[in-house]
Each structure stands twice: as structure tokens, then as C-alpha cells.
């Protein structure tokens, strides 16, 4: 940020470069802020849910109730209602996915952290690859490898001539479009949201350095930045939900019998 | 364009935000796996246990309540039937008592009547016997006295038993006739 203030050739709008944070310790590429945040989220989520579930009382304490609410939301709304009777196998994965993404997203508006881990595309890539592996593996285990490939390439109930265009589309959907859209949706939302907040807060900051007229406008920039922060919170929750929901739907599709 | 990059790190990296970084891929995978293992081992089973116990507690509670209600209904039925039974029994006892009472009264009355008849009969018999005895003894004594008296008057001893008795009979018959 100091670089902006020190610059003398006018306002530099925030760009993709602002997401390329340098390693904190020397040149070690494992010591960047996003990586620390990712591990911080692991610690926070683990500590929270372990202490919430430790006693597992029939009549829950407030902490247990809070943890249970999140867990039963993922378990029932995203697991049971979407996947169906075999959902319990996938609940740990969906639960981890939701809490991990949500926590890392919310880091984007937590004071002092203020960086959404998922705006680094590597993290959504990893999650999308895991989901890709999970739902294909579930489908192969459920249907067998060749029936599954056949089902992807030649969906039943379609006239033969249509396969000419349908087969490439289906194959691309299952192998490329699903993981790519899944990861890019999350990444782009977090990236754009963080960029938007940077524009308003750095812009407001810059306006404050300017002439008196600009100084008067600055509060509006900050005010709008705060409004957008709330908006971001909504987007962060929504994207965590969406990623988990889509994963659950892919798994449901993998377990569904077409006949 | 390059001079806009703030740090050497950023300058060394590609600015394309869609290109992943190896370190972050590894770190992301490790972090996620770690969290997955922790949540799967420590959190999910505990919550599931709590859910199961809760379901059990609620279902058990309902079951117990249903059983209690059933028991209560059975007990109520039992009491009701016992009550009506007792009422019937009481009715029967009262009826029996009434009938028995009537029978006893009737019995006593008959006994009293028989006793009265018996006493009357006995008295009558005894009176009759006494009367007969009195008549016999009177007849003897009056006969003897009269005979003796008549003997004395007539001076003639009426020793003959047959005649004596005939005279007395005639005398008494005359007495009864003159009455």
C-alpha cells in the first residue's frame, strides 16, 4: 500500500499484481500470506468444531449448538437432500469443503487478515480437482468403469444422429467444464470482490491525499467500501455454499441410475 | 509495465492470475487434507453420535409415553370392570338378603303358628284328659258317696257292684238332664 502513497505519477488502480504477495520469510515460496491463511483456517475450523463436538451432549451447549447448526446444514441440506440415501459417506468431505472455503473466503473481510485465500487460483484448482476425483471415483465404483464411460459418451434416450454433437459436449462437460467452472467461479468471485474493495479503500485513501474537493468525496468512497464489505460477506458465504452444493450435485449424478 | 510491479517476487512471477503456483497447490492440498482428516475423525462421529442419541431420546420418550398411556387405559378398563362387577355383586347380595329375610320371616311365622297350634293342642288334650280324669274320679267318688249316702238313707247296702254302678249312672244322667 505504501507504494501507492509514495508514487508520484497519479493513482494506480489495484491490479492482479496486488494478489501476488511475496513470501514472508526470504524466498521460501511456502511462506506466502495465502498459504498461512489456508493453514490458519485449518487450525481455526479444527479448534472450533472439535471443542463444539467434544462433549456431544443430547441437550447441546451454545457452542455445540452453533457447531451442530453448521454441520447439520451441510449434512442435511447439501448431503441428504441432494445425494440421497448414500450421503453419509460424503458428509465429511462436503463438511470440510464448506467450512474450509467459507473460512478462507471470510478472511477477505476479517480485519488484519483481509485477504481471501480463494482469490489465489491454486486453491480453487486443488478443491475442484479433489471434487473431480471424488465424483468420478464414486460413479465408477457405483456403475463400473465402462458402463460409466458409455453413459457419459452415449446418454440413453437420444436419437443416434444427435450423438454427433451430444457426445463431445457431454465428454467436455464431465471432464473439463465441470472442474473448470467450479474452480473459476469461486476464484473469480473472490478475486473480483477483493479487487472491488481495494478500489474503494485505496481510491478513498488516494482521494484523501488530493485537493480539498477530492477530500470531500473520499468519505463516500469509504462508505461505499463498507457497504461493499457487507455485500462481499454475502458473496463469500454464497460461493462456499455453491461450491459445496455443486459438488454434492455431481456426486448425486454419479450415484444416480439413469434407467 | 514491468516497473509497476512492486516487489521482486511479483516481478519474477507471471501476472496471469489463472496460472497456479506449485507451492500453493501443494499447500492447499495439504491444508485441505489435514482439515478433512481432523473433521472426519474428530467432529463428524461426535455430531452423529449426538444426533443419534437425541433421536433415540425423543423416540424413546414417545415410546415410553405411549406405553404409559396404554397401561393407564388397561388399568382404567380393569377398574371399570371391577367396579361394575362389585356393583352387580352388591345388587345380588341385597337381593339375596331380601329374599332370605322374607324366607326367614315366613319360616318364623310358620314355626310360631305351629308352636301355637301345638301348645293349643297340648293344652286341649291336657284339659280333656284332666276333665276325663275328673269325670272318672268324680263319678267314682260321687258314686261312692251317693251310694254310701243312699245306703245310709235306704239302709240297704248296695254291695252289688253292677247294680251300684247302674244306679250311679242313672243318677248322673238324671243330674245332667236336670241341668
From TrEMBL, chain A:
The keyword Hydrolase does not apply. The keyword Ion transport applies. One of its GO terms (cellular component) is proton-transporting ATP synthase complex. SUPFAM superfamilies: F1F0 ATP synthase subunit A (SSF81336). Gene3D superfamilies: ATP synthase, F0 complex, subunit A. It is found in: Membrane. GO terms for molecular function: proton-transporting ATP synthase activity, rotational mechanism. Belongs to the ATPase A chain family. Pfam families: ATP-synt_A. It is a multi-pass membrane protein. Its main location: membrane. Keywords: ATP synthesis, CF(0), Hydrogen ion transport, Ion transport, Membrane, Transmembrane, Transmembrane helix, Transport. This is Unannotated protein. The chain crosses the membrane at residues 35-52, 90-110, 122-140, 186-204, 216-234, 240-256. NCBIfam families: ATP_synt_6_or_A.
From TrEMBL, chain B:
Signal peptide: none annotated. Pfam families: ATP-synt_B. Keywords: ATP synthesis, Cell membrane, CF(0), Coiled coil, Hydrogen ion transport, Ion transport, Membrane, Transmembrane, Transmembrane helix, Transport. Residues 62-96 form a coiled coil. GO terms for biological process: proton motive force-driven ATP synthesis. It is found in: Endomembrane system; Membrane. GO terms for molecular function: proton-transporting ATPase activity, rotational mechanism. GO terms for cellular component: endomembrane system; proton-transporting ATP synthase complex. It is a single-pass membrane protein. The chain crosses the membrane at residues 18-39. Gene3D superfamilies: F1F0 ATP synthase subunit B, membrane domain (1.20.5.620). InterPro entries: ATP_synth_B-like_membr_sf (IPR028987), ATP_synth_b/b'su_bac/chlpt (IPR002146), ATP_synth_F0_bsu_bac (IPR005864), ATP_synthase_B_chain (IPR050059). Belongs to the ATPase B chain family. F(1)F(0) ATP synthase produces ATP from ADP in the presence of a proton or sodium gradient. F-type ATPases consist of two structural domains, F(1) containing the extramembraneous catalytic core and F(0) containing the membrane proton channel, linked together by a central stalk and a peripheral stalk. During catalysis, ATP synthesis in the catalytic domain of F(1) is coupled via a rotary mechanism of the central stalk subunits to proton translocation. This is Unannotated protein. It comes from freshwater metagenome.
Amino acid at each position: 500500500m505504501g507504494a501507492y502513497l509514495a508514487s508520484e505519477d497519479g493513482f494506480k488502480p489495484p491490479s492482479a499484481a496486488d494478489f501476488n504477495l511475496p513470501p514472508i520469510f526470504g524466498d521460501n515460496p511456502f511462506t506466502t500470506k495465502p498459504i498461512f491463511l489456508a493453514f490458519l483456517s485449518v487450525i481455526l475450523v479444527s479448534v472450533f468444531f472439535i471443542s463444539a463436538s467434544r462433549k456431544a451432549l443430547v441437550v447441546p451447549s451454545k457452542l455445540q449448538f452453533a457447531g451442530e447448526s453448521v454441520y447439520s446444514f451441510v449434512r442435511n441440506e447439501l448431503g441428504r437432500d441432494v445425494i440421497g440415501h448414500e450421503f453419509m459417506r460424503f458428509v465429511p468431505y462436503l463438511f470440510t469443503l464448506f467450512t474450509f472455503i467459507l473460512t478462507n473466503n471470510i478472511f477477505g473481510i476479517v480485519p488484519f487478515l483481509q485477504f481471501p485465500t480463494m482469490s489465489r487460483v491454486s486453491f480453487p484448482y486443488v478443491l475442484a480437482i479433489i471434487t473431480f476425483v471424488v465424483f468420478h471415483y464414486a460413479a465408477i465404483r457405483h456403475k463400473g468403469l465402462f458402463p460409466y464411460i458409455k453413459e457419459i459418451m452415449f446418454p440413453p434416450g437420444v436419437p443416434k444422429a444427435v450423438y454427433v454433437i451430444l457426445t463431445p459436449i457431454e465428454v467436455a462437460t464431465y471432464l473439463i467444464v465441470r472442474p473448470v467452472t467450479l474452480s473459476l467461479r469461486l476464484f473469480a468471485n473472490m478475486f473480483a470482490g477483493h479487487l472491488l474493495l481495494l478500489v474503494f479503500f485505496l481510491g478513498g485513501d488516494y482521494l484523501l491525499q488530493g485537493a480539498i474537493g477530492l477530500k470531500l468525496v473520499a468519505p463516500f468512497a469509504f462508505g461505499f467500501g463498507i457497504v461493499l464489505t457487507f455485500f462481499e460477506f454475502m458473496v463469500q458465504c454464497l460461493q462456499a455454499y455453491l461450491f459445496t452444493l455443486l459438488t454434492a450435485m455431481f456426486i448425486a449424478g454419479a450415484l444416480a441410475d439413469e434407467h | 509495465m514491468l516497473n509497476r510491479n512492486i516487489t521482486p517476487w511479483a516481478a519474477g512471477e507471471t501476472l496471469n492470475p489463472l496460472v497456479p503456483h506449485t507451492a500453493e497447490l501443494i499447500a492447499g492440498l495439504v491444508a485441505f487434507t489435514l482439515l478433512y482428516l481432523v473433521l472426519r475423525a474428530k467432529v463428524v462421529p461426535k455430531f452423529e453420535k449426538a444426533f443419534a442419541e437425541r433421536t433415540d431420546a425423543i423416540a424413546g420418550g414417545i415410546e415410553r409415553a405411549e406405553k404409559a398411556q396404554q397401561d393407564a387405559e388397561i388399568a382404567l378398563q380393569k377398574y371399570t370392570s371391577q367396579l361394575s362387577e362389585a356393583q352387580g355383586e352388591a345388587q345380588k347380595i341385597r337381593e339375596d338378603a331380601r329374599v332370605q329375610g322374607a324366607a326367614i320371616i315366613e319360616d318364623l311365622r310358620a314355626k310360631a303358628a305351629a308352636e301355637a297350634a301345638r301348645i293349643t293342642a297340648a293344652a286341649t288334650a291336657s284339659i280333656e284328659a284332666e276333665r276325663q280324669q275328673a269325670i272318672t274320679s268324680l263319678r267314682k267318688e260321687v258314686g261312692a258317696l251317693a251310694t254310701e249316702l243312699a245306703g245310709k238313707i235306704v239302709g240297704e247296702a248296695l254291695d252289688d257292684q253292677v247294680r251300684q254302678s247302674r244306679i250311679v249312672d242313672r243318677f248322673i244322667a238324671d243330674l245332667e238332664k236336670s241341668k
